[in-house]
Amino acid sequence: MRILFIGDIFGRPGRTMVRHRLPSLVSDHQIDLVIANGENAAAGFGITPQLAEELFELGIDVMTTGNHVWDKREIIDYFGMADGNPHSMARRILRPANYSADLPGWGFYEGSKNGVSYAVINLQGRVFMASNDDPFRVVDNLLKQIRAKVIFVDVHAEATSEKVSLGWYLDGRVTAVVGTHTHIPTADERVLPGGTAYITDVGMTGPYDGVIGVKKELVIGRFLNNMPVRFEPATGDARLCGVVVDCDENTGKARSIERIFLSE
Predict the structure, then answer these.
(1) Which H or E run includes 254?
(2) In the prediction, which pLDDT does 18 show?
(3) 68 catalytic per annotation
(4) Of 29, 68, 156, 183, catalytic
């Protein structure tokens, strides 16, 4: 099984890159399953039901999120549409599994693609981020429930040490652990000894003529004067960041991980 994961889709530039480049990526890399982090799809902050469905229609199978998942309040009602309906499109967008259990939505998804069962788990870090349940123990409990051999984990976290630790902690138990959130791609992709593909951060799919997706003059001004300012998404130099993970569908072990970094 060959899995494409697309890093944080940021605003219209990110969505446009996915629209333009996803078909050729799927064809050229013989992709079976497409996963993406979509929490910044709506002008850089959150995701709306309409945008979620547009991204699904482009060929994304499952979407993960993170700390911006609640920025657009209408997503809460969208999660509610999937209650009692496991086949709803809304069921295929996740919020971090280590959020409080009584919050809307789900932290993992189990599905089947081309006859292969798979699972996607969404976790959020705790270092330099809001306090949530322990992602290490939460993922332990989830792995007791999941039957699929192919298991893909998105760790939405700030600290590299926390991501690397989760990679080692899950080595041999999941197919891949990929980091999101910082919007900066790292160059440490590898397959760990136990057969888990790992990268600390996949990077952002969006405008690089800015500061992690935001107009650079706004962020620079904030650093210079510390005055509050409304952040707006940048527009130029759109790029698509992702990884392709090749794995054994029978064992779930990764064979390889390849970094993708495409410009307009």
Answers:
(1) strand 254-263
(2) 98
(3) yes
(4) 68
* Cα atoms in the Cβ-side hemisphere of radius 13 Å centred on 4: 24
The domain spanning residue 254 has which CATH number? 3.60.21.10
C-alpha span between 12 and 42 (Å, rounded): 7
Residue 88's nearest CA partner among 100, 102, 77, 73 is 77
Instruction: Output the pLDDT for position 254.
Output: 98
The whole domain housing 62 covers 2-263
pLDDT of residue 201: 98
Residue whose C-alpha is closest to residue 5's, from 213, 209, 155: 155
Q: Are 105 and 95 in contact (CB under 8 A)?
A: yes
Tell me which residues of the chain have a pLDDT lower than 50: none
Split into its structural domains, the chain has a count of 1
Phi, psi at 173, each rounded to 5°:
-110, -20
Residue type at 97 in one-letter notation? A
